[in-house]
Amino acid sequence: MPHSGDFAALISSTRRHRGAASRWHSPAAGVARAAFTAGLVILAGASACADDPAPSDVAATAVAPEDRHPELRRLSPTEEVWIDRERGEVVVGGRVALDDGLLEFFACPKGTKEHESVVAVAASARLVHAALLAVGLEPGKPVSFDPEYRPATGPRIRVTMRWTDADGAVQEGDARGWIRNTRTGKALETDWVFAGSAFWIDPADGREYYQADGGDLLCVSNFPTATLDLPIESSQSNEALLFEVFKERVPKRETPVEMILSAAE
Asked: In Å, how far are 85, 105, 262 from 132, measured between CA atoms?
């Protein structure tokens, strides 16, 4: 059975790929997608259940920072993702990347789209996807625009933010309160859904990539590559962006934060 170190190695092999290519158009692509998704399930389950240490590969033997949540199951020695299977929660570490401005995303993996995301997380999108699988959530379908708009589907996900304020007190709040509708001036009222992103096959070498690793983890503009998307129509056009940072509510840039993902009631 795979170990958490195997998962870390799988994640480290992922690189960003965007562009037009066949994703689901052939039987082979469908088989590859099914096999890859099954691999995520197996790896997530192994990481959630294994009590033995990770094998001595490069990722597992690297010196990792102190584990902030020893009471939870950490899915990678180098990425900040934990699961609480009893509570059905996924905890993801990160920092505030943007405390003012228009948004296309709420959260992205660090090193991708911080200039238009409130939070940059210290994790890949595929590891967050696997963590959601490990707590029993199954993805739906990403948004589509052809021949007409069809919203993303999937289980509704509540996102709670946790951080320490200037006085040293731990705070928690609904992530939707950090996002303001540019038309109404009110906070976001819609939960995200676990759409599950999509897979891209490089025609040059046949390798498969999880598209949300390019930055599209939690979106507030609709993207067919989103791991979590809003099930309402929200343009990605710069001239029609629907959401912005609720700057009066968001901690200052670089503040360490955690996202807690769980099924919305």
From this structure: 10, 19, 8
Residue 21 has pLDDT above 90, yes or no: no
pLDDT grade, residue 15 (50/70/90)?
very low
53: number of Cβ within 10 Å: 11
Closest Cα partner for 68 from 82, 48, 55? 82
pLDDT average, residue stretch 159-177: 97
What's the whole-model pTM score? Answer: 0.79
Q: What is the pLDDT of residues 211-232, one digit of tens each?
A: 999 999 999 999 999 999 999 9
Cα–Cα distances in angstroms (integers) from residue 198 to residues 24, 37, 214, 230, 259, in the given order: 9, 10, 11, 16, 22
> Domain coordinates of the chain in residue numbers?
4-263
Longest dimension (CA), the chain: 57
Residue 102 has pLDDT above 70, yes or no: yes
By residue count, the chain amounts to: 265
Q: Which residues of 121-139 are buried (b: 16+ CB within 10 A; e: fewer)?
A: bbbbbbbbbbbbbbbebeb
Residue pair 132/85 in contact (Cβ under 8 Å)? The answer is: no
For residue range 175-186, what is the model confidence (pLDDT) as tens digits?
Answer: 999 999 999 999
